[in-house]
Amino acid sequence: MAATTDYEHDPKGQELTAPYLKLYTVDSPNGRKISIFLELLKKDYTLPFEINYRFLDFSTGEHKQPWYLDINPNGKIPTISEVDSEGSRTVLFETGAILQYLAFKYDTEKKYHYGPTDGKNFVDQLQWLTYVIASLDSCQFNFVFFSMFAPEKNPAVIEYFIDTSKRVYSVLDSRLKTNHGWLVGDKLNIADIAAFCWVRSGPRFGIDLTAYPDLDAWVQRIEKIDVVAKALEIK
Ligand SMILES: N[C@@H](CCC(=O)N[C@@H](CS)C(=O)NCC(=O)O)C(=O)O
Known about the structure:
Blueprint: E1 3-4, E2 16-17, E3 20-25, H1 29-44, E4 50-55, H2 66-69, E5 79-83, E6 89-93, H3 95-106, H4 120-149, H5 155-178, H6 190-199, H7 213-223, H8 226-231
Parallel strand pairs: 3-4
Antiparallel strand pairs: 1-2, 3-5, 5-6
Bound molecules: glutathione (GSH).
Glutathione is lined by residues 28-30, 63, 75-77, 94-95, 133, 137, 141.
């Protein structure tokens, strides 16, 4: 297909040639969940699209501009815009939805996910992925906001979110212990990728990972995966 100008009316959009997948992102835990997974898929499969990373500038509020709110009304990253060779476009936001969409569509050999025919592992994946997005993400995001960005620092609120984060870390640590090293099944999968992106940044927010030995070992193991290490450098 011929080169097409940007479907999203992105003022900084380049001319892209379909098929492509454009990831609107920033260098943050939520953004990294998707870039790591895309790079893993790219290593293992011949993907039917080129990946285009578009880093938004939060300091100028690009993520709150009308053109971006048209594709992500919540005004957050990440969002994917996938255009196939016929020019048909799929837009998706929310990391849990994006990870499952990419997994079900492109991880055809189920290297990084469990499908509906995989019994308990599929059920566990639904549960742990949802837990990570609903509990880990929100308490850590709130902790970061209230301790670093809120105009007024309220110690009780900050303490609440650090305590809640630590409780979630304990839950994940116990799960890794009983499930022998992965949150789900016996391989790196989309629930583990989602959790990893927040947990590895715990020390930056004052959480000592050595207090959670299984979580600590799991972070180090995932960070050593070549593709993951390279994906973490995409900025
Ligand atoms: N539940 C969303 C959370 C996304 C999110 O919180 N993204 C942050 C960056 S890590 C963001 O865009 N923050 C900008 C803002 O809140 O204005 C998801 O899983 O995609």
